[in-house]
Amino acid sequence: MDIRVIMSISISTEDFRRAEETAVRDSLKIVDAMPNGIIRQCRTKFQTAVVEKRDGQVRLYFVDAGRSSKAPKKSGYMSRMDIERPFELVALYTRAMLLSLLWKPDPAKICVLGFGGGRLAMYLHYWYRALELDCVEIDADVIDISAEYFAMRPSERIKIILQDAREYIETVADSCHYDCIYIDCFTGAGHQPDVLSTLEFYLACIDRLNDGGVVAVNILKSDPLFSRKAATFVEAFPTVRYFRHSDANILFGMKGDDLTDEQLAATAEQLESIFGLSLPLTSLKDELLSNTVTRRLFRSSVRRILNDDLVTSYISGAKDS
Q: I need a surface site. Which of 9, 132, 313, 320 has the fewest CB within 10 A?
């Protein structure tokens, strides 16, 4: 049986992690002293951003005013942080997206599209000593919120780029390639932007991957175009897997061949021995559907695939089909 053995991973030192913990907790003291409730609300260029403190957590969500005749739409939480344990990932979907590490257990460079509170970036920077992170966020106010309320700031290994995600992927230097690309972008109502769900966009992401690289996309089941977006993702990638759970739906697309379930399980066990319970990859891995099953679930057809011409003319509020 062909089981991969991870010989070495560039894990950060205990001294580095202790220093990070001290710096982040010091930064969060002001937030910790704030009363429960909404601690910031601001109208950004794209939506209303709301930060609340409750039950020992700081949380970010968006509100989309929508049409004047309709009540405002509130998104799910974009970011959540446990103030006492800032280096643990509270949201299931963030932990699930890191199943990408089963294919790339020692990534050198990762791109995060949709920064929010910076939870994925903080966790990965904390554990991987040499990892470079390019984090792209379209909303300048969200970047400010990530620094003030989530203790997330750029560093030598974390670049925070104020730019549209699609524009970034299509204009970044040809020499720039990633081991993993995380797509975690949402509108004020909590749906993935349609322009980040087309065949052309996913093909552009593949061009930015190293061989064997992985794209992970977070798509809410409540999205009116969920099935079509999933079918389009499946159409774009030669190999796909699907993390299906009542609280998270993550699609993984690989640039290259898939690994066997035995290989993924072996890697999960080895990584979990490093990350511990903060990232229970062995149990998360059990929710991954195979390439065959994923393709069967989201059978594609010309009518179902989203392309740039279609989403440009798409009328907001159309039903999935």
A: 313
In this prediction, residues 193-202 reach a mean pLDDT of 95
CB-count burial class (<10 Å; 0-12, 13-18, 19+) for 30: exposed
What DSSP state is assigned to residue 98? G
The region, left, alpha or beta by phi > 0 then psi within -120 to 50, assigned to residue 166 is alpha
Q: Quick one: DSSP state of residue 237?
A: -
Mean pLDDT of 243-253: 95
227 Cβ neighbours under 8 A, 6+ residues apart: 298, 304, 320, 321
pLDDT band at 299 (very low <50, low <70, confident <90, very high): confident
On whether the CB atoms of residues 124 and 118 are closer than 8 A, the answer is no
In the predicted model, is pLDDT for residue 317 greater than 50? no
For the chain, list the strands marked E by DSSP: 37-43, 48-54, 57-64, 73-82, 109-113, 132-137, 158-162, 178-183, 209-218, 239-245, 248-254, 288-289
Query: What are the residues facing 79 on neighbouring strands?
Result: 60
Q: What are the Cα distances from residue 21, in Å, to 16, 41, 78, 123, 218?
A: 9, 27, 23, 11, 28
CA distance 166 to 179: 18
Over range 197-211, report the average pLDDT.
Answer: 97
The model's pLDDT over 52-102, given as tens digits with 9 standing for 90+, comes to 999 999 999 998 755 444 555 666 789 999 999 999 999 999 999 999 999
For residue 75, the number of C-alpha atoms closer than 13 Å in the C-beta half-sphere is 26
User: 49: which strand partners?
Assistant: 42, 62
